[in-house]
Write a structure and sequence with these properties.
By secondary structure, the chain is an alpha/beta fold. The protein has nine helices and 14 strands. The protein has an eight-stranded mixed beta sheet. The protein has a two-stranded antiparallel ribbon with strand order 2-3. β2 and β3 form a beta hairpin. The longest helix is centred in the C-terminal third of the chain and has 14 residues, at 227-240. The chain starts with a strand and ends with a helix.
Length: 241
């Protein structure tokens, strides 16, 4: 299974660390943030990385080169950062022809556990989309994607940054997506934030009666956006040894 790793953002909340380097190269426990993302994908038997780069892309390319621990890397340039959905859409020409599902793992997450469960479920023939989820408090749910499910964990709705969250089950930046996501992404209109939202495209697949499954992520996770997040991530890594 291939993997798309969005890593094009500027990381403005991590300034001054990101004044002279991209967010993916900010060090966490003396290693680039992106290296932890790659490690989690390798644990899940991913065979190729498609890394979406933008801000100071040349530094990421020089750091990792053509392979990471034997896994080939293809770099895809996102000229304008217009949201997660837009980043995924940049990989269409590389992935569409295979007609195989692929993993998306955001390039700014530190996972204390593995992403094996979502990837395993995503390989099942009766599941079309997998969203890796975790439970959060109400305030956190207002700042990210919120997932609504039925009693079997099948997703009935995804809402991006709702003022009044319909649940406290949130996205984690880990997905398994079918190639049908590409035409869905081209259909959605930019949100009020001016972004192509992956949540809107997934909702279109739900409307098309595709099976979208929520799968809990094992272990703690830190979305690294601020210096405080780096401290939290380093604490998790230290506890894991």
């Amino acid at each position: 299974m291939d993997a798309v790793v969005p890593a094009a953002g500027k990381g403005t909340r991590l300034r001054p660390r990101t004044d002279d380097k991209p967010k993916g190269l900010v060090e966490v426990a003396e290693r680039p943030l992106l290296s932890y993302v790659f490690d989690r994908l390798i644990e899940s038997s991913v065979t190729d990385f498609y890394v979406v780069v933008g801000y100071k892309a040349d530094q990421i390319i020089r750091e990792f080169g053509d392979t990471y621990n034997g896994v080939p890397i293809t770099y895809i340039h996102q000229r304008e950062q217009q949201g997660l959905g837009h980043a995924i859409l940049q990989a269409e020409s590389h992935l569409r022809s295979s007609n195989e599902p692929f993993v998306v793992l955001n390039g700014d997450n530190i996972f204390g556990g593995t992403i094996q469960d979502p990837v395993t479920v995503g390989r099942q023939p009766d599941v079309d989309v997998v969203i890796g989820v975790e439970t959060a408090d109400q305030q956190t749910a207002q700042q990210t994607g919120v997932v609504v499910t039925d009693e079997d964990g099948q997703v009935t709705n995804v809402v991006e940054k709702p003022t009044d969250p319909p649940s406290t089950q949130i996205t984690t930046g880990c997905y398994v997506l079918p190639t049908e996501i590409f035409p869905a992404l081209r259909l959605v209109q930019p949100s009020d934030r001016g972004e192509i939202e992956l949540a809107d495209a997934v909702d279109l697949l739900i409307s098309a009666r595709m099976h979208v499954q929520a799968v809990p992520i094992e272990g703690p996770r830190v979305n690294v956006n601020t210096p405080e997040d780096i401290t939290r991530a380093e604490k998790i890594l230290q506890e894991l040894g």
